[in-house]
Design brief:
The chain starts with 5 loop residues before the first strand and ends in a 6-residue tail after the last helix. With 381 residues, the protein is of the alpha/beta class. It has 14 helices and ten strands. Strand 3 (57-60) and strand 4 (63-66) form a beta hairpin. The radius of gyration is 23 Å and the shape is elongated. The strands form two sheets. The protein has a six-stranded mixed beta sheet with strand order 5-7-6-8-9-10, sandwiched between helices. The protein has a four-stranded mixed beta sheet with strand order 2-1-3-4, with helices on one face. Residues 234-375 form the ADF-H domain. One of its GO terms (cellular component) is cytoplasm.
Length: 381
């Protein structure tokens, strides 16, 4: 069988395009590389190749394939290997489903906190983003790496790269590489936090970025410099006076006001009050928070404060504590996830609150979870 004629339209500094390089390298395929300058408007000829103007685009025997995940999947399917088994029989289909779920968990629960970190304006914000990233890993990704215990270091216990590493490798290079103090993009505390709380993930990530097919085009300093310039915040989101006034009135209401919901304005400049609630039923608040919509009716992130009342038990009486909640649904667009993540500490510090919860699913803010966080686990004991 003749070798396919492959042309890769790419930019080596783009993590999405990097996926195609990893797949082609690991599969041992020869290809022509055409670099697309992403800093200027796309040339008309490239818009004929890919009307969206994005990279990567792949020409495979004259057929154009776009979008990085689709390109990598196509290459893995067209050239059967250790990257991905054929879709049948059922065991193979189940493996493919698990791999797809793993990749989705990584990009929906972990990667947004990385983007928030590189957009952060302060070390405190980067530390907070790192803690949120690790929390996402611990809850969503670490359990999916159980098969690596005592086996190969890659997904499913494989001793060779899989499509999971092809799709995530370029981001792992950035997450771990940018945690070096000289880059100032990701908290330097991240590696230790991962070692302590998510050792499987850390082993998997380190094995992935050490693989030649993953790192052969990687230029850490050059990419870090560009990322810092690209994602440096052009402006800070400000907490409006109305937010502080509403909060002070809330604290003095002695339980009459139960919660405040805040949002970032559509122009991305200000934190403003979205709603004030008096209903004593926690589920009313929870439903309202989860039902938050943007100006176009789509699910939207929010911040909230809630007055948690609880009984210590043992005759010690009732207590109350205000808890801060960051609500960022898992399907929130990346830009808004970044903005909310980098502004979270700004608002929390302005309100002088310590107890907090970050939630991307309604199950994260069930009453028992909120009660435990507010009471330090002492409620009812």
């Amino acid at each position: 069988m003749a070798s396919p004629k492959i042309t890769l339209y790419t930019n080596r500094g783009c993590p999405w395009a990097h996926r195609a390089h990893i797949a082609l390298k690991e599969l041992g395929l020869q290809y022509e590389e055409v670099t697309i300058d992403l800093s200027v408007p796309r040339e008309p000829w490239y818009l004929e190749v890919n009307p969206r103007g994005l990279v990567p685009s792949l020409s495979y025997d004259g057929n154009i394939i776009t979008e990085s995940g689709i390109v990598a999947q196509f290459l893995a399917d067209a050239h059967p290997s250790h990257l991905l088994p054929a879709s049948g029989p059922a065991d193979n289909a189940l493996y493919r489903a698990r791999l797809a779920f793993f990749v989705d968990a990584f990009f929906s629960k972990v990667a947004p906190h990385f983007f928030a970190s590189i957009r952060s304006a302060s070390e405190a914000d980067r530390d907070a983003a790192a803690e949120a990233l690790v929390a996402g890993v611990v809850k969503e990704v670490e359990p999916l790496l159980a098969d690596t215990e005592g086996k190969g270091p890659f997904f499913g216990g494989s001793d060779k790269l899989t499509l999971a590493e092809v799709l995530s490798g370029s981001f792992l290079l950035r997450i771990l590489g940018f945690s070096k103090p000289e880059h100032g993009l990701v908290s330097a505390k991240l590696p230790a936090l991962l070692e302590q709380q998510a050792p499987r993930f850390k082993r998997w990530a380190e094995a992935t970025i050490a693989h030649e097919s993953v790192n052969f085009i990687w230029e850490e300093k050059a990419v870090a410099d560009k990322m810092r310039a690209k994602f440096a915040p052009k402006q800070h989101v400000s907490v409006q006076d109305e937010c502080l006034t509403a909060f002070n009135e809330f604290r003095l209401s002695k339980g009459k006001t139960k919660y405040i919901i805040y949002k970032i304005s559509d122009n991305k400049k200000d934190v403003v009050v979205d709603a004030v609630g008096h209903d004593q039923d926690y589920e009313v608040f929870r439903e309202q928070l989860a039902a938050s919509k943007d100006s176009q009716g789509r699910p939207a992130p929010r911040y909230a404060v809630y007055d948690v009342e609880y009984d210590l038990g043992g005759g010690e009486g009732k207590r109350s504590k205000i808890i801060f909640i960051s609500w960022v649904p898992s399907d929130t667009p990346t830009l808004w996830s970044m903005i909310y993540a980098s502004t979270r500490e700004v608002l929390k510090n302005a309100l002088n609150l310590s107890a907090s919860i970050h939630a991307d699913d309604k199950s994260d803010i069930e009453w028992k979870t909120v009660l435990s966080e507010a009471s330090g686990g002492k409620a009812g004991k």
